Amino acid sequence: MNKEIYEKMNFKNTDVLYSFHRPIVEFDIHQASLSISDRYGLLDKDFVNKLKLLPKEDRVVQIGCIQRDDKEFSKKFLQYELDIRKQFIEENKIPLSDIITCHSDSLIFIYDGNIKDIKSDVDGIPFTHRNTWTSYMLYKEKIEMYFDNNKMIIDYKGIPKDMVKQHMFGIHKYLMKVFHMLEEKDSEIYRYLAIFQRKYLMNQLPDYYYFPFGYNGKYKLENMNLFGYIADVALSSMKGGYYNG
């Protein structure tokens, strides 16, 4: 796993299928394209200063065009990005087994310590704390769900925004309830899951519960796969587990 985390821009730790009752945090490189290009002299200083004045969207487009047209710049930039990410992991002594995902210039990992103790300046490159969650679940190795039991929100990654929107009053509401009950170690979770699935199979829920939670497949089959997975997670996590196996 070490090699994958340090060599892949996008990494997902499929050994961690879910986590409850431990803080999960997200850090990313602040203005990664500018910070790295400026720190290591990958672009002309005057050009970097001009880029700093642009809105984020325009700046990203310009850097993207340079990466597309200048392969040497792109190669060096990506390597520095990987090196800085590796250095951040090592200097903060983050166990590789606690890293959930790496998305280009960001990391999401389980962290039991004080956020203030995280070293957020690595070799002159600033990292920014973006999010903190209380739970995590991975579905079908691509859909990531991050839950904050204090704010009662779920952040999804790996699923289109329009799909999340259509589930807001259905599956999303169900998932919110499940996450909250698991965080609270509510033994009524089993009864809730059983009643919900029975109502679902008997078509006793509103229509919006029947939109497929996935990219394809018939709604009942697709959603029953999700409900079965949730039941397995609930059974395991209530017994005290948070990792796969």
Give structural attributes.
245 residues; 9 helices; 8-stranded antiparallel beta sheet; alpha+beta; 8 strands
Mean pLDDT score, rounded?
90
Give the H and E element order.
Answer: HEEHHHHEEEEEEHHHH
Strand content: 15-25%
In terms of per-residue confidence, which ranges show pLDDT below 50 for 5 or more consecutive residues? none
Q: Radius of gyration over alpha carbons?
A: 21 Å
**Main sheet summary:** 8 strands, antiparallel
Number of helical segments? 9
Give the helix proportion (percent range).
Answer: 40-55%
Coarse shape: elongated
Between the first and last Cα atoms, what is the distance in angstroms?
17 Å
**Structural class per helix/strand content?**
alpha+beta
* Extended strand count: 8
In brief:
This protein is of the alpha+beta class. It has helices at residues 2-7, 32-39, 45-52, 56-69, 71-91, 161-166, 171-183, 189-201, 219-238; strands at 10-12, 18-29, 99-103, 106-110, 121-122, 125-139, 143-148, 153-157.
Structure, described:
The structure is a single chain. The chain has 245 residues and is α+β, with helices and mostly antiparallel strands. A hairpin with a 4-residue loop joins strand 7 and strand 8 (153-157). It contains 9 helices and 8 strands. Strands 1, 2, 3, 4, 5, 6, 7 and 8 form an 8-stranded antiparallel sheet that branches. The radius of gyration is 21 Å and the shape is elongated. 44% of the residues lie in helices and 22% in strands. It has helices at residues 2-7, 32-39, 45-52, 56-69, 71-91, 161-166, 171-183, 189-201, 219-238; strands at residues 10-12, 18-29, 99-103, 106-110, 121-122, 125-139, 143-148, 153-157. Helix 4 (56-69) crosses helix 5 (71-91) and helix 8 (189-201) packs antiparallel against helix 9.
